[in-house]
Amino acid sequence: MIYVFLATGFEDIEALGFVDVCRRASLPLTTVSITGNKVVTSAHGVGIVADSLFEDHNYEDAELLYLPGGMPGATNLDSHEGLRGLILQHHADGKPLAAICAAPLVYGNLGLLEGVKATCYPGFEDYLTGADTCGDLVVCDGQFFLGKGPGAVLKLSYEIVARLCGEDIARQICEGMLYPDAIKAGV
């Protein structure tokens, strides 16, 4: 199961674009509100109904955890102690972690990016403690899948689909979404 965590102020396209691509690939995915309410307001004032609340799961079936960025969404994710504990356990278990835009700051603040090649929204590099930061649109290094910002969501999503389902499925999704540049970029 892929879990996508939504906090007040999340970046709309970074959450929903990822959900869209994963569901096209038939990956099991659940959106999770960390707010205590299933309706979560995005950075652009859109109310999105999450599939579930954080407390509804034990996360034993978690294959990948995904954190959309946006402000104050990323800092709201970072301040949720239950999510922080889950991320630490997921990392210790060697399972994949993904984040985009400002959200890699959560992994950085937990000390998980030491020696990892990482990208994030410009200006948030200082939060990626110990990371080898770069300006790449998408970076996949070990357990981590990281995207620079809203424009990276499709490429990041295709990379994750390629890892979880294989490159053929990712290529089919790219073609179906009429995004040939992702295919040329070597998804």
Any overview of this molecule?
The protein has 187 residues and is an alpha/beta fold. It contains seven helices and eleven strands. The strands form three sheets. A seven-stranded mixed sheet has the order 5-2-1-6-7-11-10. It has a two-stranded antiparallel sheet with strand order 3-4. The protein has a two-stranded parallel sheet with strand order 8-9. The mean pLDDT is 96.
Number of helices: 7
| End-to-end separation | 22 Å
Strand content: 15-25%
The number of distinct β-strands equals 11
Q: Which percent bin holds the helix content?
A: 25-40%
User: Secondary-structure element sequence?
Assistant: EHEEEEEHHEHEEEEHHH
**Sequence of strands across the biggest β-sheet:** 5-2-1-6-7-11-10
Sum up the overall morphology in one term.
globular
* Low-pLDDT sequence parts: none
- The assembly state of the depicted protein chains is single chain
**Over all CA atoms, what is the radius of gyration?**
15 Å
Reported for the largest beta sheet, the result is: 7 strands, mixed
Q: Roughly what is the average pLDDT, rounded to an integer?
A: 96
Structural class: alpha/beta
